[in-house]
Amino acid sequence: MTRFIAIAVLLFLPLPIVIVVLSSFTSAGYLSFPIEGFSLRWYAEFLGSADWLRVLGTSALLALIGALVSTGASLAAAWAVVRHGVRFGTAYETLLLTPLIFPHAAIGVIMIVTLSSLGWLGTFTGLVLVHCILTIPYAYRPVAAALRKADPALEEAAASLGARPWRTFWQVSLPAVRPGLVTSLLFSFIISFDEVTVTMFLVGPFVMTLPVQVFSEVLESASPVIAAVSATLVLFTSVMVFVLDKVIGIQFFVERD
Amino acid sequence: MPKSIRTGLLLAPSALLMGVFVVGLVRLIASSLIIDGQFDIGHYTAILNRADYVAMLGRTLRIAALTTVISALIGFPTAYFVARYRGNRNFLLLLIIFPWLVSIVVRSYGWVVILGPRGLINGYLTWMGLIDRPAKLMYNDFGVILGLVHVLLPFMIIAVLSVLLQIPRSLEEATMSLGSKPSHSFRTVMLPLAMPGILTGVTLVYLMATGAIVTPLLLGGLGDTMLGTEIFQEVMHFFDYPKAAALATVLLVTALGVVLPIQFFERWLSARLSDGGDRT
Questions:
Q1: Which CATH architecture has domain A58-253?
Q2: Which end of chain B has fewer CB within 10 Å, C or N?
Q3: Could you say which DSSP state residue A103 is in?
Q4: Under an 8 A CB cutoff, do A254 and B80 touch?
């Protein structure tokens, strides 16, 4: 029984994704499955559209900046908590995880209130700020875990051998936490690139992300170009997961710290 | 530079980000309690006095609860199977983690392609000659729950799996070699030890299900809103921010009111379990 349920679930999880990717190759003008004839015309339409490409660029840039900022902020915070022994360190770590345990619809409204008071509603800067907050929980855990595993005695040894603090940091500390850093970067990049529930409250006429654009197109039309765009999103995620697996091993996701 | 200043500088970037979040949260709750510059709970009484909102709240709770229970019922056996799998476990993990990282828009859209009037299932059934009109597989609760289970199930599996992988296989074998039946060994040993993981999974799935917008909008009926979709409509179509703020606060109370007790129970249970481990 366990075996039966497990195998069914393991087939069920990738199913809709496979279907979307396959349906993007249809030659018909409407979406149907099984597809009617093979064609790449919807990919041509997607890649030939300046609008779609601009939105793709916005999403990639947003995810890149967001990942860099939240990983940097997480590394600094983890350094303070793990190495300096902040007094309420555990409580602070819990605070950093709170965006994960707030329902996304509520975060959406919170962020509307916040961004409009800053005058950043519908701006790229506003999206960067929000994506940093949303990805901090995902960025913090791998960095903190790597820092806990790294031996501080190595830094002390480098320092006692006369290395200046910056040199110790670049040549000893940073390489020791590199796997954690790479994981944080990739993980927060994926989360930010695919985020839609909160982001759709905050986009405007001048800034739009790829998943939000896909969402509003799906609500309005059923053009197979959405399948081609979705398949491209899937390809992006696949590359990221492949790199994550190579760098740190997919096992990381189910390890407890 | 003194150490305390260095610590402060290191904490500053993350503290700033979290500060923005916390201040936003406080302002959200405050704005829902003010009408014309005065403290007033009118937004809340207005919500609770409307039968359609009360029905929507009930519907949100029902769908979130069903999604959570189904995810636990099928997620636990899956995690158990993966944890005890002797072959290439990495491949099985990939089947769980890859879909989890694909955008929820794409995954929900995938269900539209499968369940829609011209979708995979209806197409097949029509081709077989079993039906002449498309069956209604989505735009109802069934579609929403199926989509939500699909989107949120990986959270459950990953949470349970991370606990199960820490329980040595020999523990089960020991209980069985002492004469315990598999079902008994499962109930008295595995299930209690896995409980912290199950509770974490339940927490995450329930929270995300109550606050979901994308999946219910794509797979749900137009008339049957959930709290999340209603908030989205109030903001994007009616620009009624105070009402959206009140609904979002109701959503927070609904979600955290269920989840915080579970979290405390989970902490207590984890502490007790690790105590027991130390004594042996």
A1: Orthogonal Bundle (1.10)
A2: C
A3: -
A4: no
Q: What is the pLDDT of residue A8?
A: 95
Give bridge partners of residue A38 from the DSSP assignment: A26
| Contact (CB<8Å) B114/A33 | yes
Rounded (10°) CA dihedral B275, A77, A178, A195 = 90
Positive or negative CA dihedral for B27, B29, B32, B35? negative
Q: Where are the domains of chain A?
A: 58-253
Strand partners, A207: A204
- Please give the average pLDDT of every successive group of 10 residues along chain B, which has 280 residues: 84 94 92 84 88 92 96 96 90 94 93 85 82 81 94 96 87 75 77 90 94 92 84 89 91 89 86 61
Helix (H) or strand (E) holding B39: strand B38-39
Q: Which of B90, B95, B227 sits opposite A105 (nearest CB)?
A: B227
Q: What is the pLDDT of residues A36-64, one digit of tens each?
A: 778 888 888 888 888 999 999 999 999 99
Which residues contact residue B246 at a Cβ distance below 8 angstroms, ignoring those fewer than 6 apart?
A: B32, B43, B44, B47
Answer whether residue B270 is part of any domain. Answer: yes
CA distance A103 to B251: 8
Rounded to whole angstroms, how far apart are CA atoms B140 and B117?
Answer: 13
Whether cis (ω within 30° of 0) applies to the bond prior to B168 is no
CATH number at residue B231: 1.10.3720.10
Helix and strand numbers, DSSP H then E, in chain B: 13, 2
Given a cut of 50, the residues of chain A with pLDDT beneath it are none
pTM reported for the whole predicted model: 0.91
Could you tell me how many residues make up chain B? 280
Chain A residues whose beta carbon lies within 8 Å of the beta carbon of residue B106: 17, 20, 211, 214, 230, 233-234
Q: Give the H or E element holding residue A119.
A: none
Contact call for residues A254 and B165 (beta carbons, < 8 A): yes
Among the partner-chain residues A7, A106, A238, the one whose CB lies closest to the CB of B251 is A106
pLDDT given at position B278: 46
